[in-house]
Amino acid sequence: MDSQVSPGKEQMRGVEDEFVKCEKCIHIRMNRPLEPFAGVRTWTPELLERKSKWDEDQRKQKQLERERFLAKLDFDYEPLSYPWCDKLTEDSDRYVVDPVSGPPRKIYVLCGYANEDGKCKDFTPL
Q1: Angle made by CA atoms 114, 120, 124, in degrees to the nearest 5
Q2: Which of 52, 75, 83, 113 is least crowded, fewest Cβ atoms below 10 Å from its Cβ?
Q3: Domain coordinates of the chain in residue numbers?
Q4: Burial letters 31-56, b for 16+ CB under 10 A, else e
């Protein structure tokens, strides 16, 4: 029996030396989850109710973002659950204009969209 280690994902793709991971790039950005109840020491029924609502809202937001991501829809707000590329977002000329409020909003370029094949041309190691 051959004692070689099975090939990793990079080798199986055939791009062993060219495969890049966004997690190792200086341009990656990821929203830190807010924890507004982290410092609470005494829980009242009102606080428990608010925390429960907060948790439910966060769960719903993550589900909406997941559906949006899987459908490959644009993110015109900073995603809470997905990493995005600062460089590609800043370099992009893609905007969406809110017909009610008017100001244009940048389209965030998600790492999962921009680097699907592991060959991001803007990759810059940490």
Answers
A1: 120
A2: 52
A3: 11-32+46-114
A4: eeeeeeeeeeeeeeeeeeeeeeeeee
- Measured CA to CA, the distance from residue 60 to residue 68 in angstroms comes to 12
The span from the CA of 54 to the CA of 35, in Å, is 9
Q: What is the DSSP string of the chain?
A: ---PPPP-HHHHHT-TTT---GGGBTTEE-PPPP-TTTT--S--HHHHHHHHHHHHHHHHHHHHHHHHHHTT--B-S--SSS-EEHHHHHH---EEE-TTT--EEEPB-BHHHHTTTS--TT--B-
Q: Using one digit for the tens of pLDDT, what is the confidence trace for 101-123? A: 788 889 999 988 888 888 888 88
